[in-house]
Design brief:
Strands 6-2-1-7 form a four-stranded parallel sheet. Strands 3-5-4 form a three-stranded antiparallel sheet. Helices cover about 55% and strands about 10% of the residues. It is extended, with a radius of gyration of 26 Å. The longest helix is centred in the middle third of the chain and has 24 residues. It is α/β, with parallel strands linked by helices.
Length: about 280
């Protein structure tokens, strides 16, 4: 009798009858490589693969929605309300791209550069490190290391670590030698021409000066893509601006004017955001 009760209790726990699914039923099924290598179908199959593959598939779908929306003609009724971003044409969708500095430090930088080079984004928002690391990599390379390397030993060697990336400190010395004369020119133009420097104006100027097609911000300058970095001084560039201000003081960075430019970008017919 007692054994029957134990068996019944175990069966009731294990063999619970299923109710209806709380979501629309989608069967899990992955890509079959017996059908050959088709990257488009492979990515599409991620929708039904599960785990993070499904999130990647959703991101791909959202990017495609952005691009398709951008190709739509801007409705006539909305043209008056849509603010023109400098010389960039008004479109049905303004695409923002946001990322942190590690995305520029690593090899994702080349994909971000591709987006800027081919005008696939309209505005960029990044950190101070996301700005300076692009220019530094034009001056000297970053190397692959290991997460397990001793930070103290690297410091003694004059090597900086970003995760498993290694950046010789000489890279920052080269950055200072490159950026100091530009800061002096900017101060001169501020005094003589009354230019009010904002973070986005500074980044555009540095993109012009680097004159290197490997640079993200070279292409942002060429294609008039505004780059917003409210905390532009939080990093090596801020150190260089500070050091230079002691020897040649007076450069002013206006972050209030920058808020108006950001508002112009947001005040569009349709806005989409990509975030790395």
């Amino acid at each position: 009798m007692e054994e029957n009760l134990v068996l019944e209790t175990a069966q009731n726990a294990v063999l619970v009858h299923s109710g209806p699914l709380p979501v629309e039923p989608v069967e899990i099924k992955g890509y079959d490589f017996n059908n050959g290598v088709n990257y488009s179908k492979l990515l599409k199959s991620f929708n039904t693969t599960g785990f993070q593959a499904t999130n990647l598939a959703k991101a791909v779908d959202e990017v495609n929605r952005m691009m398709n929306k951008k190709l739509e003609p801007l409705p006539e009724d909305d043209q008056a309300d849509c603010i023109e971003l400098g010389t960039r044409p008004k479109t049905s969708c303004t695409v923002f791209l946001g990322y942190t500095s590690n995305m520029i430090s690593c090899g994702v930088r080349e994909q971000i550069r591709f987006l800027a080079e081919h005008n696939l984004v309209d505005c960029i928002v990044t950190t101070g490190g996301g700005v300076e690391e692009d220019f530094i990599k034009c001056l000297a390379p970053t190397f692959l290391g290991k997460f397990s390397l001793s930070g103290r030993d690297l410091r003694d060697r004059g090597i900086n670590r970003i995760g498993n990336l290694l950046v010789p400190n000489d890279n920052y010395v080269k950055f200072q030698a490159w950026v100091d004369p530009i800061l002096d020119k900017m101060l001169e133009e501020q005094k003589q021409q009354g230019i009010r420097w904002t973070p986005s104006k500074i980044i555009a100027r540095l993109g012009k000066e680097i004159d290197n097609p490997d640079s993200v911000y070279y292409w942002c300058y060429k294609n008039n893509i505004p780059v917003f970095s409210p905390a532009i001084t939080d990093g090596s560039l801020g150190d260089m601006i500070y050091f230079r201000s002691i020897e040649n003081p007076g450069l002013i960075i206006d972050i209030v004017e920058e808020k108006w430019r950001r508002f112009q970008c947001f005040h569009q017919h349709s806005t989409r955001v990509r975030r790395f």
